[in-house]
Amino acid sequence: MKANPPEGCTPTELDDIFGLSCRRDSARLLDAVAKVCAEVKDAHGIELNDLGIEKLWEWSGDGPDGFGATIVGQLLLMALERGQQIGYSVDDLADFLHTANGSGSTH
Predict the structure, then answer these.
(1) What pTM, to 2 d.p., does this model score?
(2) Sequence-distant (≥ 6) Cβ neighbours of residue 23 within 8 angstroms
(3) Which of 1, 50, 58, 74 has the fewest Cβ atoms within 10 Å of its own Cβ atom?
(4) Reported confidence tier of residue 105, pLDDT bands at 50, 70, 90
(5) Do residues 48 and 41 touch, judged by C-beta distance below 8 A?
């Protein structure tokens, strides 16, 4: 992955841990993150699970491409990784979100 990172990504070290710094054009931040995660998993078999957000309790309602969206992405990646570790599928997690959203949700 260091020698051939996904398009728009640069290998980097974050506190002596390998990471990627990525810039992608996309309709929304989470769309870009999802595409990079899928590409890395397909090409290298590695599940990305961190966007580098350390203070998840901080919040910014600055729209679908701002810091708040990065926090939401971090929480979703954490839920995906940890949910799968205890036996939840992606569909289980999506169903949870749809159900928790109430009867007005669409699937």
Answers:
(1) 0.84
(2) 8, 9
(3) 58
(4) low
(5) yes
